[in-house]
């Protein structure tokens, strides 16, 4: 078994594949579905109407002065804020600016603001939300009480992001209450699987950087942007030249974005692309077994990081693990995927929390920067090919198969809290709050049926049949308890 098989599979470093001719440029990873529910024109219209019903707070926010504060005072305040932020270990949530639910009547979805889930203590009494199909007020009240203990609210700026997805007024309200918005800026995405960006793509990126800068400039207070998550794909890390070229692109982007956002905290997020097999113990992994870490792989993007060390405030990484996915060596076509399942030892799932601790320590020591885990996913369905036909049949899926393992991982992270903090970690968050029955539907769906099981809360919505969420919330195992203390 070649060393890089699981490295490729479990880190979403998808190899070149035989895509159907009609979809040659679509993104390949689960991230491509993260904002898909927001991208059509009908969603934009209904989302705008929904904002009228969102929590308005205490009416004391969003009085942004057009005149900037004294820059020296702002810098001193920012330094103190950042020091405090980096000295604590907080958790976050997010995955979207708003979540789409089925209505009791009609067809237009009801959009629940992500920020309402932190700020609105009376969310169960909101008449607009009471129109959600199967709405359980107590479930949402309890969820709000849990999420209000978060420190970070995670948003995604995908390539075709739209400012209308967001409520500046609400984000500012959350910031005034002490929450820190984290904007994950995923622009090039999985196009980097095939090649470095072209000159035309880079120019378009630079233009988008100005949009991002203008958008963030509307917010006063502590805020974070994480540049190009999962950047460490093969074409980028292939040579010293490609790494320096990519670093130069990001350096220019950071300069543009910070022109109007001097105190913005900036980072760059790598994929944990290492070998995860508990039964393997390559010396290059650097631990008793490779499930505990892979220092060789973790060092691969070091030129990019070193080139940007004077422009980033911390280092970030992500984790995405599943018991089955497309076969990375033989993924099949867009419409006819070839699935592959893995044993617990192959995925290293039982040692994931310690692996996160080890990677945190590795990055902190290597770059002398604080460390952040802005999104992690443990897909909770499992598949057992009982009839041996190499296809996923409905009766072969256990939709709760990994829920306890996911819960155990979050429990272990909580138990490791002091050590994680000592190793430089100041925050982590699940990638997705709710399982969505249409996540990346009609997309590449690298995790196949598990694309519908990436969250930490489920509803009775039917995979690949329903289009929206239902209001009967069902938190998975004890994950919420271990996350939001």
Q: How would you sum up this structure, described in words?
A:
The two termini are 42 Å apart. The chain is built from 16 helices and 16 strands. 32% of the residues lie in helices and 15% in strands. The chain has one domain (4-483): TIM Barrel (Alpha-Beta Barrel).
Please bin the fraction of helical residues.
25-40%
Q: Which strand order does the major sheet show?
A: 1-4-5-6-7-8-11-14
Alpha-beta content class: alpha/beta
Shape: globular
CATH topology: TIM Barrel
CATH architecture, by name, is Alpha-Beta Barrel
CATH superfamily: Glycosidases
SS summary, helix count: 16
Span between termini: 42 Å
Number of strands: 16
Number of separate domains: 1
Strand content: 15-25%
What is the average per-residue confidence, as pLDDT, rounded to a whole number? 90
Largest sheet: 8 strands, parallel, barrel
Uncertain regions spanning at least 5 consecutive residues: 1-27, 59-76
Please tag this protein with its features:
485 residues; alpha/beta; TIM Barrel; eight-stranded parallel beta barrel; two-stranded antiparallel ribbon; 16 helices; 16 strands; 15% strand
What order do the helices and strands come in, and which of them pair?
Elements: H1 4-10, H2 41-50, H3 71-86, E1 90-94, E2 98-101, E3 110-113, H4 116-119, H5 137-147, E4 152-158, H6 168-176, E5 180-186, H7 199-216, E6 224-227, H8 234-237, H9 240-258, E7 265-271, H10 295-299, H11 302-308, E8 314-321, E9 324-326, E10 339-341, H12 344-347, H13 352-367, E11 371-378, E12 382-383, E13 397-398, H14 403-415, H15 417-422, E14 425-430, E15 457-458, E16 474-475, H16 479-483
Parallel strand pairs: 1-4, 1-14, 4-5, 5-6, 6-7, 7-8, 8-11, 11-14
Antiparallel strand pairs: 2-3, 9-10, 12-13, 15-16
């Amino acid at each position: 078994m070649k060393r890089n098989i699981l490295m490729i599979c479990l880190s979403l470093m998808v190899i070149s594949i035989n895509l159907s001719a009609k979809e040659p440029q679509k993104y390949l990873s689960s991230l491509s579905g993260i904002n898909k529910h927001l991208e059509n024109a009908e969603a934009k219209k209904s989302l705008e109407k929904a904002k009228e019903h969102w929590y308005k707070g205490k009416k004391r926010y969003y009085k942004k002065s057009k005149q900037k504060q004294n820059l020296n005072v702002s810098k001193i305040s920012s330094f103190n804020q950042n020091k405090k932020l980096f000295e604590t270990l907080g958790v976050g949530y997010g995955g979207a600016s708003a979540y789409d639910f089925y209505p009791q009547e009609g067809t237009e979805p009801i959009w629940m603001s992500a920020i309402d889930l932190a700020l609105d203590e009376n969310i169960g009494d909101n008449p607009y939300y009471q129109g959600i199909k199967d709405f359980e007020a107590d479930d949402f009240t309890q969820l709000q009480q849990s999420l209000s203990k978060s420190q970070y609210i995670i948003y995604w700026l995908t390539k075709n992001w739209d400012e209308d997805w967001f409520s500046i007024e609400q984000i500012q309200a959350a910031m005034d209450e002490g929450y820190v918005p984290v904007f994950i800026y995923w622009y090039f995405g999985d196009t980097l699987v095939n090649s470095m960006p072209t000159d035309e793509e880079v120019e378009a990126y630079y233009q988008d950087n100005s949009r991002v800068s203008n958008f963030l400039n509307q917010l006063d207070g502590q805020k974070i942007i994480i540049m190009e998550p999962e950047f460490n794909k093969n074409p980028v890390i292939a040579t010293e030249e490609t790494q320096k070229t990519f670093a130069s692109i990001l350096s220019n982007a950071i300069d543009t974005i910070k022109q109007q956002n001097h105190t913005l905290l900036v980072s760059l997020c790598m994929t944990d692309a290492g070998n995860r097999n508990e039964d393997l113990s390559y010396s290059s992994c650097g631990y008793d077994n490779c499930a505990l870490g892979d220092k060789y792989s973790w060092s691969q993007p070091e030129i990019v990081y070193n080139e940007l060390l004077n422009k980033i405030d911390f280092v970030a990484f992500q984790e995405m693990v599943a018991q089955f996915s497309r076969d990375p060596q033989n993924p099949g076509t867009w419409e006819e995927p070839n699935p592959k399942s893995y044993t617990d030892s192959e995925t290293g799932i039982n040692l994931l929390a310690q692996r996160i601790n080890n990677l945190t320590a590795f990055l902190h020591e290597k770059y002398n920067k604080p460390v952040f885990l802005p999104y992690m996913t443990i897909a909770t369905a499992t598949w057992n090919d009982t009839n041996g036909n190499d296809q996923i049949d409905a009766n072969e899926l256990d939709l709760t198969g990994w829920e306890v393992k996911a819960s155990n991982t979050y429990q272990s992270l909580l138990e490791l809290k002091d050590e994680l903090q000592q190793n430089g970690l100041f925050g982590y968050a699940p990638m997705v709050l709710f399982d969505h029955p249409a996540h990346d539907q009609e997309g590449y769906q690298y995790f196949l049926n598990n694309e519908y099981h990436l969250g930490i809360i489920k509803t009775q919505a039917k995979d690949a049949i329903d289009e929206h969420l239902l209001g009967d919330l069902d938190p998975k195992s004890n994950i919420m308890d271990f996350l939001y203390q």
